[in-house]
Amino acid sequence: MVFHLDWDGHVHTGFCPHGSGEPSRMYIERAIELGFRKISLIEHFPLPPDLPQPPTLLPVTMEMDKVAPYLEDSLALRDEFSGQIDVLVGFEWDFLPDFTDWTRGQMDRFGPRVQDGILSIHFLKGMIIDEAAEIFMCQVLPKLGGTLEGGYREYYRTLMMLVRADLGEFKPRRIGHLNLIRRFQKIYPAPGEFRDELTEIVREASSRGMQLDMNMSGIRRKYNGEPYVPEWLIRKIASGELQFDCVFGSDAHRSHEVGLGLVEAKGMLGVGRY
Ligand SMILES: [Zn+2]
Ligand SMILES: [Zn+2]
């Protein structure tokens, strides 16, 4: 097993429509200040045009006409900061089981220009699962059988589909925030830990050479309060019982959030606090 803790592998940018709007360089400068050796600029790739417009409060991804400027800006920063920090550029892709052809086409199109990527589930049955507790309970769950149990099962089923999906040569290696379905678990308690399902997903992903986004942003969300990768799973990986490559991810949407959660990640691994 490998834990990459000198790399913030999940950082949003000035192109994020629900971020702070600060220029991307501020995120990089913060990462340098904190002593990171590597940073991945990972912006939300646009959703398929045929996806029925999901009811969200803020735009979830950048627009398609921003993709080229995003790449241009980020790749210029990659050059500018080389020698100080290794800047990888890529996208956070939404895994949408009904749109894999479209997604594969876009990955083929932009894949050759990027160095990194994350594949995440933010939508189930066309509904966003992590925006607001009320939306999750009143609008999302009814579409997933009406119970938390049903919703969680659908999420983990979709996660296995993500791992197995044929998205071509440029399929991103890293699975984003594994337990995002637990986003509101403090007010709507999770119906279980789903250890068997998660263990199976991790084994399968590992055998395919994938990586895990050791995403710590859940701990700063009031209704989540825990890392998106559960501690029991980290312990299994740390002990060698499960083999998996884990990359720390702050999921920063503003520059001061870069590196947040690293102390807790190190604490989980017993690396010591500093
Ligand atoms: Zn975001
Ligand atoms: Zn995400």
Structure description:
It is a single chain. The chain is of the alpha/beta class. The protein has one domain: Metal-dependent hydrolases (TIM Barrel, Alpha-Beta Barrel). The protein contains eight helices and ten strands. The radius of gyration is 18 Å and the shape is globular. The mean pLDDT is 95. The structure holds zinc ion (ZN) (2 copies). One zinc ion is lined by residues 12, 16, 18, 44, 253.
Question: Keywords for this structure?
Answer:
274 residues, alpha/beta, TIM Barrel, 8-stranded parallel β-sheet, two-stranded antiparallel sheet, 8 helices, 32% helix, globular, binds zinc ion
Summarize the structure.
Helix content is 32%, strand content 16%.
What layout of secondary structure does this protein have?
Layout: E1 2-4, E2 7-11, H1 24-33, E3 38-44, H2 67-80, E4 86-94, H3 100-110, E5 116-120, E6 123-124, E7 127-128, H4 133-140, H5 148-164, E8 174-175, H6 195-207, E9 211-215, H7 231-238, E10 245-249, H8 262-269
Parallel strand pairs: 1-10, 2-3, 3-4, 4-5, 5-8, 8-9, 9-10
Antiparallel strand pairs: 6-7
